[in-house]
Structure formats: C-alpha cells, structure tokens
C-alpha cells in the first residue's frame, strides 16, 4: 500500500521512478554543522567580541616599547589634527579632542588591526559640517551643531554596530576600490579648496559651497588676503619642507634614517608650536576694543571633559538626520575597512571586517557619552602608527594619555593657535588622499569602465557634493556589476595543438575569434564539422540565460545545416515567423544550406559556472528544443567540468546528461584509497581479472574505498571531467558526410 502511494505521488509531482543518483537535500542538511553545545558557542561568540583576550596574556616588554613609541608619536600628531578637523566640522576645537580620546581608547579593546588609528578624519568632518548646515537650514537654530554631530555619531555607530553583530559586513564588498579612491580624491580636493581661504584670511563667501565655486571665489578674493596668510603659508611651506628634507637626508644617511623619521613625524606639533608662539608674540598687545586680534586665533578651549553623561537623543532630530544617515554610515565603515585591509595586507595579517565594524560602532556609540562626533580610521595617522613600529592595538592607550594630557594641561596654550596654522595642518594631511596620476592610470589599464566610475566620483564630488559623489559612484558600480552578470562574455572555442621539444604535444581550446587569442598568429582549428564548443565565463543565471540562449541558437542557424527542406513545404503550411526562402532564391538557398555541416553535438564548458537556477535550466531546455527543431534531428549536449553537485542535479532534472550517446567510449577510471584484507582483496582481484572494461559491472560489489572507479558516474555519459574528453566524445559520434547528388532534383527543375 505504501509503495503504491509513493508511486502515485511520484507520478503527480513528475518524479521519475528510475532516477540518476544526485546530491539530495538530506545530504545537504546533514552537512550543516549543528551546534552541539550552545553554551560553549555562546561563550565563544562573546569572547570573539574582545580580540584583546587573544594576545594580552602574551604581552611583553618588547611589545611595550614599540607600542609606547608609536602611541606617543601618533598622539603628538592627533592633538593638532583633532582640533583642526573639529573646526572643519563646524564644531568647537575641544570636540575634536573628545573624539580623539574616545576613538583611540575604546578601539584597542575590539580591534583586529594593530595599525589603524581611530579618531576625527577630514572626509567625515567635512560631511558632518555639511549635515549640520543642511539640518540648520531646514530647522533654523533648533539644535546646536555639537548636538547634531553627537546624535549623528550615535545613530551611525548603532547602525554599524548592528551590521557587525549580525555578521553582514560582506555588504562592504559591493563597493570597489575605484569608488573609494574616487570619492576620497574628490573629497580631498573639496576640503583643500575650502581651507585655502582660511589659510589666506579671505572671507566674504561660503566655503561649504560646491568646490568649483569656492575655487572661483578664492581667486577673486586674493586681493583681500589678510595677515593670516603669513602664518598659513609659512606653516604649510614648513610642513612640506621638513618632510622633504628629512626624506632626502634619510636616503643620504641611511644609518640615521630612524632619527630623521621621528623628526619628520613631529613636524605637525613643531609647526603648530612655533606658529602659536609667533601668534602670541604678535597678538598679545594688539587686542581691539571688540575683543578681536589682527589674525584669527582659536581662543578659549575648555579644559577637560564637559558635561560627561548619557547622550540626549531627540527623536525629531533623528528624523531630521534621516536623509543624511546613509552617506555618513557609508563613509564611517567604508573608509575604516579600506584602511584596515590595506595595512593588514602590507604587514602580513588578516583583519575581521565584522569585528572591525563592531569596534567602529561601539567607539561611536559610547563616544556620545563624552560628546564626541563621528570618528573612523585615519589613513595618515595609521600610516604613521605603522611606520613607528607599533606592535599591538594597545598603543592606542598611550595615544589616549597624550590627548588627555593636552585636554587637561595644555588648553591655555591653545588659545593662541592661529586658525591659518590649523588650516595648513588640514591641507597637508588631506593632500595625500588625492590619487596620484599613476594610480588613476592603473585603473584605466585594468578596467577603463572602472576608471570612468572613478572619474565620475571625483567630478561629481567637486562640482556637487561628497554625498552626491558617493551615491553616483556606488550606483554606477552596482549598475556595472549587474550589466556584467546580465551580459556575460562567452566564446565559441576551437583547438590549438601545442608542442614541446618536437615530441610532446597536447590540445587546448581557445576562442575562435583571433582577437581573443594571446598571439594573433596562432592557428586555431575549429572543431569537427557538426560539433559546437561553447565556454561560459559567468554563472548561468536568470539575468543572462536568455542572451546565452540567443547566442547559441543564432550561431547554430548561421553555421549549421537546416534539417527541413522548405522547398517541399507549401507556403500555407510554413510558420508565420519562419517562412524560409522564397521561390525565387530557393535553389541557391538550398545549395548554400547543403554546404553546411549537419549539427550533431554541442559541448558546453561549465568550468566558469558556479551557480545555476530554474530559469536558466529552462532556457537551456529551450535551447535544446530550438536547435533540434532547426537540425530536425536529436542533438547531443555534452557538459564539461561541472563544478557543483547541485548543478549536476539541476541538469539531470531537466533531462541532460542521461541517455545513450551515439558512440560508446570507454570510461576514464581513477584509483581510490585501498584497504587491503579479506573480502575487499577478493572482490578487487575478481574485478581486475575480467579487465578494465568490466570493472563497472562489479562497482556495486566493490567497496567504495578500494580499486578503481570511473571519475564521472557512468549513469551520466554526457557529463565529462574535462573539456578534452567532452569534445572527443562529441566528435566520436559525428556521422561521416554522405555523398550528396550534385544534380538538382526534377522538382527543382
């Protein structure tokens, strides 16, 4: 009764009674790892959130020395940069120190990169400034700038933290390198253009406008340059002069290279100190009645942390920030992951992107307790940290101590820091983010389309905004990805015989088109007439299956003989969409058709196919039906190098791979691990005694771990291990051309 019910059920769903052995859903489910000890896995997951536990027990004096030097070095750069970037973000200078302290302190507990330094960065600061302006324009004077920035940090940090905890950090992979480089280059140009007026003391226009407008207004305002230019230009020149001189001296005196390196990295602090001292000497007795000075200076910076406590999150403010949250989040995670991967690759370790997102998320979320604004990885400080010999992420604690000392002990001296000097620091740091001509040219050489995306990111950022530049470049990259999937490359292949030492030779398959062969003078022989070989270069999925279907069918119609003689079919009986040749040219068309070979087999190279779906399998069935209708005979479909058992299962379900080929070839067999002893040896010896050809007959009695077995299951003779064996099997079944009568038939006459 049960067997009858099963038989009826199989008939209803169309499951054949005699099926080919393929991978089953049960096999897949058995392969899924089941958590045997949930408590242990939970503890393991929680421990993985704190990578510091993996190396802190091995911390030693040698690591401490490297971390101390690197931490102090980065701290001396971070203090002036942090204040500069806060001003760039339209915030008071102390907020840059808040973000600097929280970033380097919290990150070290969650980091998987020893080189990355977290804190205020130029691109994020510029974005924060634009968001503050946009929110204030829509809701005038409703929220203060620091509150907007702090709320933005909390929301973006929470989103990034969620992405990391859910382990979906792979979404970052959809943003390619040219996009990152493009918007970073455009943003750097945007920032430099906005800081030049402050460097020169030029006022009277908005530096937050589009970059080209700022450049034009700056050029117009050059005659209005003030005394600030003396501090700004001197500081900028000194920063570059110290770096260039130290680099040259390091090359000339390599034994003193370490000394010159540390002199070079202190240039930010040194220049700011000298400019501050000059500002104090010049301005201290020149205060006007209105409380201003001849040059713009930083003035009062509050000492220590102000109003530390739980952040105040206004729901209405979060709603107002809604349109700007995506771009801020993208910058937050994208810049950091790119920097972390870059230094991991250079220094020989691998980062965990999800854990890095967790670190960024926690840093920004907890940073709001100290009223910090969004912080992420800094390329310049990370490079400095790496060059200083950092050994572990613990160096961030020493950097935090430097920031803390500056915040509590040096704020009175910050009063006299000239704004033009801070602009010089920003320009000097950001200019290195601009892609070099050689880097841009490398994009062109590798992929001209991606170069155009890079160029679009730069131009849109310069002529519009950072936000539009990011959206434009990401959208273009996704569109390019979809086009590459939907319009895949594929080639009809021919044979080339390679020889070595005039004795060894082998056949390889290359595209028939001459421009697709490495050497254009190589002779490419087409397959045996009646055989077509086609190679996929993408997965065979629903976006591209229709195009591949058209390519194969069109090739068959153009190059293979039509099996139906239309001259014997009345016009009324011909299909409306394929009427065939007219009476006037039927003779010439029939003669041309008879010159073409009869289609026997199509060989599909699946070595580039990793995925297949229902729509593409149906398209392949349609392809088979169309070519068989054209040839008016059965056509064999051979498949080479099927990568996945699920692809094999899908093809078998559609009726491919099974059946009886025109010519039976001997199966290729391969040895397996043998286990000697007892019944195994006897069965193996029995199988060997009857010959290699009869091993298949003993396959059911042979143990699966002894002797030899076919490398491809014999029940699917149209599936082949490699392309050569597939083509040989297809060519073996080609009929010899029959002699056709050259005289026209009486009916034709």
TrEMBL record:
Molecular function via GO: secondary active sulfate transmembrane transporter activity
GO cellular component: membrane
Stretches of the chain forming a coiled coil according to its record: none
Domain STAS, first and last residues per copy: 529-676
The keyword Cytoplasm is annotated on this UniProt entry: no
Record InterPro entries: S04_transporter_CS, SLC26A/SulP_dom, SLC26A/SulP_fam, STAS_dom, STAS_dom_sf
Compartmental location: Membrane
Protein function: High affinity uptake of sulfate into the cell.
PANTHER family per record: SULFATE TRANSPORTER (PTHR11814)
Name this polypeptide is given: Sulfate transporter family-domain-containing protein
Origin species: Suillus fuscotomentosus
Lineage: Eukaryota, Fungi, Dikarya, Basidiomycota, Agaricomycotina
